[in-house]
Design a protein that fits this description.
Layout: E1 17-21, H1 25-36, E2 40-45, E3 57-61, H2 62-71, H3 74-80, E4 82-83, E5 87-90, E6 96-100, E7 113-117, H4 118-131, E8 135-138, E9 142-147, E10 152-156, E11 161-164, E12 166-169, H5 176-180, E13 188-200, E14 208-211, E15 218-223, E16 228-236, H6 248-256, H7 263-269, E17 277-285, E18 291-292, E19 295-297, E20 303-304, H8 312-329, H9 335-365, H10 372-383
Parallel strand pairs: 1-2, 1-12, 2-8, 5-14, 12-19
Antiparallel strand pairs: 3-7, 4-7, 5-6, 9-10, 10-11, 13-16, 13-17, 14-15, 15-16, 17-20, 18-19
């Protein structure tokens, strides 16, 4: 792959058409990249309001920023996010054990990572999609996909139907597209759960800081703007049916009581249960082909992993970049193209999923002599290479 992908306009003979199912990170990125090349794109999003979950944050590693630069939203990410000054490992009372600069996986001209509020990133992507001239329909989802050798006839939940040259399923971990095309791989819980919430940024917090001790597997926070942090606590998974959403803030405050330093200020701000989120870590990787005919999976629909390497968004964005490159540089949209997409992505995604799972397993099982720095270093070094 070249230093920067060259997106060509479609060959003569008519504009090609793509349906993108799902308006999240990967679906929005793919849409913008295809529209820039002159491909006609419809995007359908099942949510009627098309927004990320309130209260969540995201860490965007350098290789994610590399793709966001191609999508055109990097200036907004830099404006509204926070380029953290490395990573520190602390004791439970807040004492610094070790601090280091991170590898710049996106290249030396990009920060090692930027933290930001996830709804803000989603809004930047939405604005870019709308500016691209994409036909966006909210509160709509496909209900049937009927293929032949030349295209896909799609029936939608609003009773309409349209025909496309290609359908890209970017509809997340619980992908209905994956189900509709008969791919049987499903996400599997890892036995770990995470509490997360936004909070005011304590004075002096200018980097990602994590504790691997105390009552949780991980207690951490990452600056997401000049004024905010994204705080998270990772513990053994609980039965979500037993958790009252109205008590989420109380649960997170109680769990964080075992931590000092900046946690004292963060904990005091955890009062609104509506901005606290609790979910499980899942592991998911479709090992076989990511397509059936002219329907292909992108992002979490094909893979996800625990955020122990903070690479989930990066892997999804890279999917969009690679698929867009192939679709805009080849004359034939055929099985070989989609097979090559899978071949390009699978080894890199598998490396990240396996490494993320290994880190999670070491934490869950209390392995104290694990080579965590070595595993992280090897993985991040490999990710400096272009996808």
């Amino acid at each position: 792959m070249a230093d920067s992908p060259t997106l060509h306009r479609p060959p003569a003979g008519g504009t090609r058409t793509v349906l993108v199912v799902g308006g999240g990170t990967s679906g929005s990125a793919l849409t913008v990249l295809l529209r820039r090349a002159g491909i006609a794109v419809d995007l359908v999003e099942a949510s009627p309001d098309w927004k990320a979950a309130a209260g969540s944050g995201i860490t965007l590693q350098g290789n994610a920023l590399r793709v966001l630069r191609e999508v055109g939203v990097l200036p907004g990410v830099e404006k509204y996010g926070y380029a953290a000054e490395g990573v520190a490992i602390l004791t439970a009372d807040g004492t610094v054990l070790h601090a280091h600069e991170e590898l710049r996986t996106g290249g030396d001209d990009l920060p090692s990572h930027i933290g930001m509020q996830r709804p803000r990133l989603q809004q930047l992507l939405i604005e870019q999609v709308r500016a691209s001239g994409t036909d966006v329909r909210l509160g709509v989802r496909p209900t049937a996909l009927d293929q032949d050798g030349q295209g896909v006839d799609v029936t939608f939940s609003d009773g309409t139907s349209r025909r496309y040259d290609l359908v890209a399923g970017a509809d997340g971990l619980g992908s209905a597209t994956r189900e509709m095309i008969g791919i049987t791989d499903r996400p599997e819980p890892t036995g770990m759960g995470i509490w997360r919430a936004p909070a005011p940024r304590p004075a002096g917090v200018r980097r990602t800081e994590m504790v691997y001790a105390g009552p949780c597997f991980i207690a951490g926070y990452c600056p997401t703007s000049e004024d905010t942090v994204y705080a998270y606590l990772v513990e053994r998974a609980r039965d979500r049916a037993t958790l009252d959403p109205a008590a989420y803030a109380d649960e997170m405050r109680a769990l964080s009581a075992g931590y000092g330093g900046a946690w004292d200020e963060i904990r005091a701000a955890l009062t609104d249960p509506d901005v606290v989120n609790y979910t499980w870590f899942d592991r998911h990787l479709v090992e076989g082909p990511w397509h059936r005919g002219r329907v292909v999976l992108v992002g979490d629909a094909a893979h996800c992993c625990p955020p122990t390497l903070a690479q989930g968004a990066a892997m999804s964005l890279e999917d969009a970049l690679v698929l867009a490159e192939l679709l805009t540089t080849r004359d034939e949209w055929d099985d070989r193209l989609l097979t090559d997409y899978h071949a390009r992505r699978l080894p890199r995604v598998r490396m990240v999923v396996d490494a993320s799972m290994q880190l999670a397993t070491w934490l869950r099982d209390g392995v104290r002599d694990a080579d965590v720095p070595g595993l992280i270093g090897r993985t991040m070094t490999a990710l400096k290479e272009l996808p």
